[in-house]
Design a protein that fits this description.
By secondary structure, this protein is of the alpha/beta class. About 35% of the residues lie in helices and about 15% in strands.
Length: about 325
């Protein structure tokens, strides 16, 4: 199979399968044994992450899994723990912004209109948060940050005051699984009813328009770097753990790992360690870096809110102290 020209194409040309191997580990091990697989590179999202965990946890039972294994996180949701960015999320974010810009542009001749936009991402609010921040949204509702009807009311009052003060348009972003009861339809209806006489509301569920398309330069470059680094890692470890008969065996937890970007550095991290910081029920990390920038949304939208300030207290040094030193 040739990979020529794949760099400019979106989608999963290799094909995808969302089935995880927990119930068929014996059949997976049989295929590993049949084809004498000595190293494994998995490209995928949360299912791929769960798969490599399942295989690494069953190395004692299936020696075929005692080989170097690497996962490259690749999902628009950016919900795989152990990395700040997954392949595809930047392309999806750019697609969302392009659509939001088009939506707002379509209302250039209209006055006093609020758009409620629903993004993908499962329980992960990365796309909604970053799209809201880049698009100048007035609010972004996500699963990780709980909100109540009171919060929705306050946002409605904020937009009514803002639009009454000669601002022509508003933007509200909601993650698809932000809340089971405060759905996109509910929020749209709330804004439509409460905004009567001041603004009108429109709803847009972006759906699969966020997927596909040409990858952004960031995703293209990161994909190339991750692939090259993973192949080098696999070759190095296959040689390291090769036995005299040509087979490969290792049960070192560090050889079942995830390659991701953390604070601008590409690094391999054991999935055993990452699993401890994972919320498997909601398929997200327990702590996500982008949550710290969410207060910027309300600041830029000029909400009357209380903000938590993070900083380092610097002790003032007097002239006498300087002289004595």
């Amino acid at each position: 199979m040739s990979v020529a020209g794949w760099v400019k194409s979106g989608g999963s040309t290799l094909g995808t399968n969302r089935t995880t191997p927990e119930k068929i580990l014996d059949k997976v091990a049989e295929q590993f044994r049949k084809y004498k697989i000595h190293g494994l590179l998995i490209i995928g999202g949360f299912e791929a992450y769960k798969s490599i965990i399942a295989m690494s946890q069953n190395r004692d039972k299936y020696p075929e899994f005692c080989i170097p294994m690497v996962i490259i996180p690749c999902t628009v949701s950016n919900n795989v723990p152990g990395t700040d960015f997954s392949l595809g999320c930047d392309t999806a974010l750019n697609a969302i912004m392009d659509i939001c810009d088009r939506i707002k542009q379509s209302a250039t001749g209209s006055k006093r209109r609020v758009f409620v936009v629903e993004t993908m991402g499962g329980y992960c609010g990365y796309l909604a948060t970053m799209a809201a921040l880049a698009g100048g949204a007035d609010a972004a509702y996500i699963f990780e940050e709980k909100f109540t009807i009171k919060d929705l009311q306050e946002d409605v009052y904020h937009l009514k005051a803002k639009i009454a003060d000669n601002i022509q348009r508003g933007l509200i972003v909601r993650n698809e699984k932000a809340n089971d009861y405060y759905t996109t339809d509910f929020i749209h209806s709330l804004y439509s009813e409460e905004g009567k006489g001041i603004f009108t509301a429109r709803k847009n569920v972006l759906g699969h328009m966020q997927q596909g398309g040409s990858p952004t330069p960031f995703d293209r470059n990161m994909g190339t770097k991750l692939a090259a680094k993973s192949v080098h890692y696999l070759i190095e470890n296959i040689e390291k753990y090769k036995k005299d008969d040509g087979s490969v065996y290792t049960n070192d937890p560090g050889t079942a790992c995830l390659l991701g970007m953390h604070k601008r550095i590409l690094a391999f991290r054991s999935v055993k360690g990452i699993s401890e910081i994972t919320d498997f029920e909601h398929r997200i990390a327990k702590d996500q870096w982008w949550m710290k920038i969410r207060p910027l949304l309300r600041i830029l939208a000029k909400h009357e809110s209380t903000y938590e300030v993070e900083g380092i207290a610097v002790k003032a040094v007097s002239d006498s102290d300087n002289d004595s030193s």
